[in-house]
Each structure stands twice: as structure tokens, then as C-alpha cells.
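One record is set out below.
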Amino acid sequence: MLVYPEIDPVAFAIGPVQIHWYGLMYVVGFVVGWWLARRRAAQPGSTWKPVDVDDVIFFAAVGVIAGGRLGWILVYGFDALREDPIAIIRVWEGGMSFHGGLAGVMAAVALFAWRRGRRVADVFDFMAPLPAVGLFAGRIGNFINNELWGKPTDLPWGMLVKGEVLHPSQLYEAALEGIVLFAILWWFTAKPRPRLAPAGLFLTLYAIFRILVEFVRVPDKDIGYLAFDWLTMGQLLSLPVLAVGLAMLAYACTRRERSGNYA
């Protein structure tokens, strides 16, 4: 059994201004994602320029924050918003939905592609490994915020939190949706792949990992289990993600279209 270290969610304060670890994790995710995208764009034969990377990361950052927060409010936090409308802007306290963030990023990236005359699918493929970095950072932020714990467990790596030994489900997600997902996608995209194969692989693996972790994660208290005493909202929202990812992979494998990310 491990003991939760009770980390202060405030990293540091400057007068009345408090900087939270959760917010810093998003900054880390965007900065590391930008650096990795710059590295990938510098590969021989890449059709991406440094300025393209800078712009697409900016578009993605706006999309993930706006979409992630709005998605969380609509699905998980509507009651909190009714009690305190200002809660919608307090993203540093937690409360971001991956599925909402995914929708926001897709819309923002599609707008970028349209403005630059690129195929939307190619931009999705170029970006495919990068969300895993943000997912890892965000789950570490959840751990620091002492939120999104799993069910009680007697496993040796269970964590003592307020008198209960719980699955550290945030760390499971950080490992699977962050480290493992990134390693697979970074390797997969190291050479040209058929159009939509990287994006399809990302969606498929994320959905599988999320569905699996949800079996040990406690559902949102305002929603609970949707059916069978095990189906959660996270699993339900991940099913269409899985279906779209598999459809993309099938399309990529059958059509074998050349990616526009390489000359």
C-alpha cells in the first residue's frame, strides 16, 4: 500500500495570484507537444514548416481548452455551473473533458487546414502523437488535485486516500493514454503511413485504454453508472471514438492514399 502525498495544488503564488499545478500541466503539454512537432517537421521530406507548427499548436490549444471545458460543463458539471456561473472559467481547479477537448481540437485543426489549403486528414495525422503528451500531463494534474480516484482495492500499489485504499486511476490513465499511447504513435509516425492511419490508430487506442481504465475508476457522483452497474459515461462516450478510429484504419488500409505530410 502506498500513501497519497497530499500535494498542494497551488504550485506558487505571486501576491493574490495563485498558479496551480493543474494549469501548469497544460502549459507543459503544449510546450512539449510544440517541441516534438517541430522535430517531426524537420524530418527530411516533411511538407511542414516551423511557422505551420507554431500556428497549428496555437489553434489546437484554443480548441482543447474551449472544447474540453465546455464538454465537461455540459456532461459532468452542469449542476456546478448553475450554482456558480463563474465556474466555467476556473479551469485551473480541474474539470476538463477529453471528448469535449477532442471535438474542440478537431474543429480548430480543421479550420487551420482550410486556411492553409491542407487536407484535414493530413493535419490530423501529423498531430496524432501529440495529444498523448497533454493527456499524460493532464492526468498528473488530476493526481495532484486529488481527484478522479478509482475504486477501493487491496492491491499493493493501491493508494491510501482519506482512510481508503484506492486505485490510482489517474496514474493508470497517465501510463496508458500518455506514455504507452505516445510511444506507439511516435514510432508509427516515424515514417510515411497511409492517409488517416495515424489518426485512426490514435482514436482506436485511446478509446480502448479509456474503456479499460473506467472499469476501476469511480464514475462522476452526479451521473453514476448508466447501466449494468459498470457502464460509465466515459465508456459510452468512448464507443463512438472507437468506431470512428476503426473506420479510419479500415479506410487507410484499403485505400492506401499517400499522405500529404511528406513530399
About this structure: The chain has one domain: 2-187. Residues 2-187 form one domain.
